[in-house]
Structure formats: C-alpha cells, structure tokens
Amino acid sequence: MNKVLLIEPDRVLAEVYKRAIEADGLTKVMSVTGAQTAIMAADKRRPDLVILELQLIEHSGLEFLYEFRSYPEWQSIPVLVQTMVPFAEFTDNWHLLQDELGVSAYMYKPHTSLRQLLDSIKEHSLVPQ
Amino acid sequence: MKHMTGESYPASILSQQLLVGVAEELKLPLLQIARQLELAQLNGSANLATVQATAQTALQLLDNYVLGVRLALEPQHFPLEAVSVSSVLYDASQQLDAFAKSYGVSLELNIAGKYGPVLANKQGLQAALVSVGAALIEAIPALEGTQQLKLHLATHRSRYGIIAGVYADTKKLSNEALQRGRRLQGRSRQPLLNLSQSNGAGIFVADAILHAMDLHLMASRHHRLHGLGTVMQSNHQLQLV
Predict the structure, then answer these.
(1) I need a surface site. Which of A81, B109, B170, B187 has the fewest CB within 10 A?
(2) Least Cα separation, residue A9 to chain B (angstroms)
(3) Which CATH architecture has domain B11-240?
(4) ipTM field
(5) Does residue A20 surpass a pLDDT of 80?
(6) pTM for this structure?
C-alpha cells in the first residue's frame, strides 16, 4: 500500500483530494492541516510521498520542509508542492526548494486538475503502482 | 432617524486591497466546486450539498463586499433602526448552517437574555456576522490543536454595551491578531497568519461593513470562548416605543 501524506489546510479540498487519490484502492492518504501534525504523522507512519500546500496556518510549508528534510530517513521521500501561491511569487527561491529542499514538482492548485495531480503522484512515486 | 455617516470611513472600503482580497478569496470556493465536479466525473459520486453550500457562501461574500461599498457610498439608503441582536444572530446562523456542515463545524446559538433593541442597520449587522462566521468556519478545522469544531454565535452584555459575535475555543482570536491583520491586509498573502490560511477577506469585509456603520470589529470573550464581534449600545428610547 502506497502511503501519501497530504498537507492541506482546507477541509473540503482535503476530502476531495483524499477520495480521488484513494480511488485506485492501492493508496492510503494521511491528511493533516498543518506543519506540526504533518511531522507527527510522518513520524508515526513513514509516507512514500508528500503533497504540500505552502500556505499553512502558523508554520509555513517552507518551515515544514526544513524540518522534514533535517531527518536523514525522510530525505529521499518525494515532495510535491501543490499550492495557492503562484510560481511567479517564489521564482527566485525555486532553486532552494528544488535543490536544497528536494521538491520534486510544483503545481499551482487552481490550475491543477485531479487528473494532473494523480499523474504527478504516479510519476514521482517511489513505490510501483 | 439617525443615518450612518460614511464620511469618517476612509476610501479603504473601496480599496483595491480589499477587492483583490475578495477576488483571491473567491478562488477557493471556485476551486472546490471545480474539483468536486471533477471527482464526480472520475468516481461517479458528487456531494451536491457541499457544492451548493460552497457556491452560496461565495455569493454571500460578494454580496457582503458590495453591501460594504454601498454602506460607505450611500449611507442614506441604510438607516439605523431598532434591531434585535438575537434575531440577527438567529438569521445569521441559518445562513451559515449548510456551509458549516460542509466543513464539519457545528453551530451553536447563545442568545439567552433580553437585552432590548440596539441601534444598527439590520442588513449590515447580519452581513458582518455572516462574513466573520464564514471565514471562521473555514479557518477553525485548519487550526492545529483545536479540540472542538464548534462555532458559537452569541450575545451578551458587557460594561461597554451589548456584544454580538462569533466565538470558538481558540485563543488565536485576539485583538493583537486582528490589528496585525489590518496592518498586513493587502500586503501579505496571509495577514491573519495564526488564524487563517487564506487572506481572510471575510474578516476584513466585516470590518469594513461595521466601520461604515460607525461600529468596530474587535476581539471579545464569551464565557471561556474567544471570538470576534462588535459592541452596540442599547437604545432605551427605542425600548419605550
């Protein structure tokens, strides 16, 4: 079973993404709303892939990434950024996200269909589906 | 009958920041609707009640923004009147009910006590409370460590007057957070960083509506709960009528 950690602060969207991702019957989604609970969830059950919104309450997605990547056992886990923040707003920092924090893909949430999200998960998943 | 004066209210009610904030905020419900319909196409199951509540609340945000603008521009069309706070809170809870359900938030109405009428514009007061309520319904499930997904619409008397507000079991609803949010509104993606993942347009629309009615959005306590509300003076003259 492929385990996806979904960090999505909006409850309605989280439910939609969870249902879409789990529809294949081979993937289990752990859905959390913030950075702290995400770290705890990952600690409890190591995810195979992370989907991250950068705009979170209190601690940002970027702070989560720094914390997450500080643990050696989580450094190879693919992280897909799916966010409401347009790419233009952090173009200058993209190399930081990609090279230093190991972000595998960026998706602008309003323009990313469920199908595109599912394809991206498939593409970056380390566990064969 | 006293009319509200829009003179003291700065152009910020019409500000581009607030309009941009509303436009940004509307991306979320549109996105929710688009993805829910896409999910229905993929899986053949659609939660139509949630889609409807989402659309309705987005329309309300637009209506409330427009009302705020009209209150500032045409105060003569929005006279102050004798308003029952309990009745306004009841109507607001009815308006928010379906949206709250879609977020798994339960609404509780605390309107016990007879406080008599206050001087306000009913439409404006209700729009402000609905606007704050909808913003908190979205925010509360995302707050880490929140035990209860419950929102209270309540009124009580304080030494400053009669307060009507929206309350939850979180200390993050503070004056400090509100003031910082006002300073950052239009300059930051998340002016209410500790409270909302969005730009909190609903809170600022309520702020603008209340301001146009010479009222103020402020942090308030109700029993052990924290919330945002407004203080109004009861009008003894009206009680005699």
Answers:
(1) B187
(2) 5
(3) 2-Layer Sandwich (3.30)
(4) 0.93
(5) yes
(6) 0.90
